[in-house]
Amino acid sequence: MSRARLHHLAVVVADIDRSTKVYCGLLGVHPTTEVLHDPKQKVHVQFLSGPALGDIQLELLAPDGEDSPVALALKKGGGPNHLCFEVRDINEALQTARQQGCRVICEPVEAAAMDKRQIAFVFTPDEQIVEFVAAPTDENE
Questions:
Q1: Which CATH number is 25's domain given?
Q2: Is pTM beyond 0.70 here?
Q3: pLDDT of residue 92
Q4: What is the pLDDT of residue 137?
Q5: What are the two backbone dihedrals, phi and then psi, of residue 19, each rounded to the nearest 5 degrees?
Q6: Which helix (H) or strand (E) holds 131?
Q7: Residue 131: CB partners within 8 Å, gap ≥ 6?
Q8: CB contact set of 65 (below 8 Å; sequence gap of 6+)
């Protein structure tokens, strides 16, 4: 894989508004987006950033219903869900992931919370979730 950088850490929460207040008070971070709904991923999303997080963001995820991919994680208590890496070529990243024994669980789709950039998810051989997000177009050139 040519270039990858850690973009965000995703945390599954029951109540985004409550969790935003807690993380802002606890870490001195601030919301960088409104609460967004991503119907393709079946989640509500908000990103936080600030000096405590360095160059990465914290993504708060809440299911939008019982059939949301994160609903089961919430039933198990929520918490850290996945790491997301920004990559130049999402298809190359998936090819590399497959070569490393990862299983693709979501082929590239546009993501509302990522300015319609493509995202994809894989399970590592240890069943950990990794997300890839395509770098903004101007960084691809």
A1: 3.10.180.10
A2: yes
A3: 96
A4: 80
A5: -65, -35
A6: strand 129-134
A7: 10, 82, 83, 84, 85, 119, 120, 121
A8: 42, 71
Q: Can you name the residues that pair with 11 across neighbouring β-strands? A: 60, 80
CB within 8 Å of 127: residues ≥ 6 apart = none
Token pair listed for 121: 């998810």
pLDDT of 33 strictly over 50: yes
- Per-residue model confidence as pLDDT tens digits over 73-112: 999 999 999 999 999 999 999 999 999 999 999 999 999 8
Instruction: Find, among 14, 57, 60, 52, the residue nearest to 35 by Cα.
Output: 60
Range(s) of the domain holding residue 30: 4-140
When divided into structural domains, the chain yields a total of 1
| 45-63 residue pLDDT tens | 999 999 999 999 999 999 9
Burial degree of 2 (CB within 10 A; 0-12, 13-18, 19+)? exposed
* Residue 52 contacts residue 28 (beta carbons within 8 Å): yes
